[in-house]
């Protein structure tokens, strides 16, 4: 079987599982929507004083948060499949190990796309001022980042095979990412040393690029850094995920 056919078989199975339990899609969108509804009004006077539209600034951050945190939990279902013997059953088939990973990634990316569209639609309802073209570019960057996080989550899940290990590690990673990437507040509001430290956070550059696309300014430097980091993280995580799935075949 070709790679596309093999990965589509895995994708169809994963999609059927999600459709039988669509609560995960709703749970994934719940947190950023709450931030948008409850934190957005608090942020609105602050951002508008800087001369910008609060929701045009805030929605891109929520998109990136959705791409990171939603995808990071993708591996938990993989641990369940491993316990039930699904992974072992897939390993005895002639399907390539990369297809086993990508079939799951297509499911994760489709789920992220649906959630992103809901979030953007809500942002427009609340008064976001962003062009359709800018939104499309922002969502594409989010999908790249989400694919990277989902691949890393699957790789880590197969490495640890334990939710008790995975959950605290994810929480440990999420905190500095949330605080240093400028998702919730502009890093310029903090002290100089904190802003300089945030420059070493790759997610910050992706957030800036998504915001640039939403504002329609497309600053060359910001977009280059954001696109570059999105591609690099996606490539590295896909490599890691594929290597772990291949190792499982040993």
TrEMBL record:
TM helices/strands, residue ranges = 21-43, 55-79, 109-126, 132-157, 169-189, 222-245
Domain of life assignment: Bacteria
Record-annotated ABC transmembrane type-2 domain positions: 23-248
User: Which Gene Ontology BP terms does the record give?
Assistant: response to antibiotic
* GO CC aspect terms: ATP-binding cassette (ABC) transporter complex
**Recorded GO MF terms:** ABC-type transporter activity
Q: How does it sit in the membrane?
A: Multi-pass membrane protein
N-terminal signal peptide: none
Main location, first listed in the record: membrane
Q: Has keyword Zinc-finger? A: no
Q: Subcellular localization, per the record? A: Cell membrane; Membrane
PANTHER family for the chain: NODULATION PROTEIN J
- Which family, according to the similarity comment? Belongs to the ABC-2 integral membrane protein family.
Name used for this protein in its record: Transport permease protein
Q: What is the lineage of its organism?
A: Bacteria, Bacillati, Actinomycetota, Actinomycetes, Propionibacteriales
């Amino acid at each position: 079987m070709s790679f596309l056919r093999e990965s589509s078989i895995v994708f169809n199975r994963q999609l059927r599982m999600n459709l039988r339990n669509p609560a995960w899609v709703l749970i994934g969108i719940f947190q950023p929507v709450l931030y948008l509804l409850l934190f957005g009004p608090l942020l609105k006077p602050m951002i508008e004083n800087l001369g910008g539209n609060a929701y045009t600034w805030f929605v891109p951050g929520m998109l990136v948060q959705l791409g990171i945190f939603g995808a990071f939990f993708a591996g938990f279902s993989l641990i369940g499949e491993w316990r039930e013997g699904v992974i072992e059953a897939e390993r005895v088939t002639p399907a390539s190990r990369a297809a086993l990973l990508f079939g799951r990634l297509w499911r994760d990316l489709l789920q992220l796309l649906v959630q992103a569209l809901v979030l953007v639609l809500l942002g427009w309802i609340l008064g976001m001022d962003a062009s359709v073209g800018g939104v499309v570019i922002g969502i594409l960057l989010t999908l790249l980042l989400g694919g990277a996080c989902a691949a890393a989550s699957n790789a880590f899940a197969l490495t640890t095979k334990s939710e008790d290990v995975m959950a605290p590690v994810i929480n440990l990673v999420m905190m500095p990412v949330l605080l240093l990437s400028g998702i919730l507040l502009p890093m310029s509001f903090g002290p100089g040393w904190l802003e300089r430290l945030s420059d070493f956070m790759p997610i910050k550059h992706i957030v800036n690029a998504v915001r640039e696309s939403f504002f329609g300014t497309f600053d060359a430097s910001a977009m280059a850094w954001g696109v570059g980091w999105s591609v690099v993280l996606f490539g590295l995580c896909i490599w890691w995920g594929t290597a772990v799935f291949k190792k499982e075949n040993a």
